[in-house]
Design goal:
87 residues, mainly alpha, 4 helices, 0% strand, elongated, Splicing_factor_3B_subunit_5, Splicing factor subunit, SF3b5/RDS3-10
């Protein structure tokens, strides 16, 4: 693989990472990646009325309560972040 092609691919990848926050970056941790996935899923549920209605019916609660709980879960969807090792 030529160095020019590698440089172009890396530049395009960095451009995508900068443009779309959910795509992560080269140094993203597993916890950060999972948090992004969970928040995207919860935002989709809260933003689409049929999904929110389905969730509310499945849980047996009001749509407003289901939306509130979904938005509350977005704060820490995967729990607190793990402690970082300081080297």
């Amino acid at each position: 693989m030529s160095s020019e092609l590698r440089y172009t691919a890396n530049t395009q990848q960095e451009n995508l990472f900068a443009r779309y926050t959910g795509t992560g970056h080269a140094d993203i941790t597993k916890h950060e990646w999972l948090v992004h996935q969970q928040r995207d899923t919860l935002a989709s549920i809260a933003g689409h009325a049929p999904l929110l209605s389905f969730l509310a019916i499945a849980d047996g609660e009001a749509i407003g309560r289901a939306k509130f709980e979904v938005t509350e879960k977005m704060l820490q969807p995967c729990g607190p972040p793990p402690l970082k090792d300081e080297d």
